[in-house]
Amino acid sequence: MDKIRLIIAREYLTRVKKKSFLIMTILGPILMAALMIAPIYISTISSEEKTVGIVDESGFFTAGFEDTKAVKFKTLNLEIDDAKKNYNQLGVDLILYIPQPSYTFPHHIILFSTKQPGMNVESYIRNSINNDLRQLRLKKEGIAPDIIEKIKSSIEVNTVKLKEDGTEEEQMAARDLILGLVAGIAIYFFIFMYGAMVMRGVIEEKTNRIIEVLVSSVKPFQLMMGKIVGVALVGLTQFLLWVVLTLTLVMGAQFAFKDQLAELQTDNIQNVSQTMGANNPTEMTFENSAAIEALDAISTINFPVIIGGFLFYFLFGYLLYSALFAAVGSAVDNETDTQQFMLPLTVPLILSIMLAQNIASDPDGPLSFWLSTIPFTSPIAMMIRIPFGVPVWQLALSMFLVILGFIAATWFAAKIYRTGILMYGKKPTYKEIWKWFRH
Predict the structure, then answer these.
(1) Of 11, 93, 225, 255, which residue has the fewest beta carbons closer than 10 angstroms?
(2) Domain definitions of the chain by residue range
(3) SS3 (DSSP) at 169
(4) 360 near 177, Cβ under 8 Å?
């Protein structure tokens, strides 16, 4: 054990002292925090105000448009041809043309502009006209105004999961989908990144003949385990630093922009109520804003479960694959020769990523269950499922099989490693590797 500890310490210290480790440890949290903060920050920045000139030949909608912080309306008492000719002198950014209806109501509207008006402006105008047109048609059919006001209200659908112990948990499908996919893809890249680090380290020591000196003092199995555990600790250190620094940056940004977020809340309530036709703006929920939905989704994440699951599947998924990567590194003399042996190892990981959308779409289905149970695919598949909620027995079974898979992979890899580490000058075949394993 003392020799393994020395190898672990060497592998760990030589890597954490590298400039690349320090740079990635700092840049990683900044990039992750930016992905969370950027949409919220952009939402707090006031967009350029647009002035829309209205040419309403129908006479139905001129008074139906209400000014917002981003869009102002101006009635143009001109024919559409005159408005287009004098576009630059009217002081407007767009001309909204509502043609004379062919029968009772117009069937389309036209926006004239020298620049792209943007989706927000188009959406606001479309919603305003559709709301007004709906009311006009209802009035024409003899529906009383008070009944029209009542039917304006919209219904928000919330999903609540009933747990086995009788408690309830609110679910956000979009949040769980994004979180599961991000966690699964992160596991995929971490396994490849740190597993390849082990493989390259073995190849480098073998090529430089340093391995001959090392195996004279330690057993091949001790050397392999020391390298695997040492690199695993490097990965865990970097990941924990990323979590701490990212959460610090996100919480700091929320505190720094609390005034802007409060202003965004007020503006969002007003804008949404105008668009949806609410009688009382205070009845409009703050979650209708994409930026605030992002904040609310982040605040309701069960971080202990997500981080705990991520650490477990990252660690044992890495241990399982890094043992096999180390065996591949010991069997070849250069990284080019690893391609033929890497394909069988990478197929399960690639398959998990290819089926990630299917897993997220039906997290309790048979495909998701089996992929999250088989050790070679479970690190990614189970991480995609965890945000949606997984029965305890399935999670325990998956963890047990991953640990069992790691033990089996280590035993298999050690039998190849002890022979392949001292083989030089010949490109091995699968047949020869099988002989090493049976030796």
Answers:
(1) 255
(2) 2-39+172-438, 50-149
(3) strand
(4) yes
Q: At what angle do helices 220-256 and 392-420 cross, to 10 degrees?
A: 140
The stretch 161-168 carries a mean pLDDT of 62
336: Cβ contacts below 8 Å, ≥ 6 apart: none
For residues 414 and 334, is the Cβ–Cβ distance under 8 A? Answer: no
Alpha-carbon span 118 to 16, nearest angstrom: 48
| Whole-number Å distance between alpha carbons of 287 and 154 | 14
Give the pLDDT confidence of 145-162 residue by residue, as tens digits.
Answer: 666 566 655 555 556 666
Nearest-CA neighbor of 11 among 241, 322, 345, 335?
322
**DSSP readout, 269-309?**
HHHHHHHHT-S-GGGS-GGGSHHHHHHHHHHT--HHHHHHH
Count helices and strands in the chain by DSSP H and E runs: 17, 6
Where b means 16+ CB within 10 Å and e means fewer, 424-435 reads: eeeebeeeebee
pTM above 0.70, yes or no: no
DSSP state of 87: G
Residue with tokens 């399935």: 394
pLDDT, tens digit, for every residue of 109-154? Answer: 787 877 766 667 777 777 777 776 666 666 666 777 666 566 655 5
Taking 70 as the threshold, does the pLDDT of residue 38 lie above it?
A: no
- Give the class (CATH, top level) of 50-149: alpha beta
**Tokens for 118?**
């943007």
Q: Which two tokens stand for residue 210?
A: 């340093």
Q: Residue 211 in 3-state DSSP?
A: helix
372 close to 356: Cβ distance less than 8 angstroms: no
Could you tell me if 413 and 339 are in contact, meaning their C-beta atoms sit under 8 angstroms apart? Answer: no
Percent of the chain at pLDDT exceeding 90: 8
Beta strands in 105-243 (DSSP E): 110-112, 159-162, 168-171
Q: How far apart are CA 136 and CA 151, in angstroms?
A: 14
Q: Given this model, what pLDDT does residue 279 score?
A: 41
Res 296 pLDDT > 60: no
Q: How many Å is the maximal CA-CA distance in the chain?
A: 97
> Alpha-carbon distance 322 to 11, whole Å?
14
Q: Cα(36)–Cα(131) distance, rounded to whole angstroms? A: 34
CB 358 within 8 A of CB 367: yes
CA distance 177 to 250: 21
- 201 is written with which tokens? 């380290």
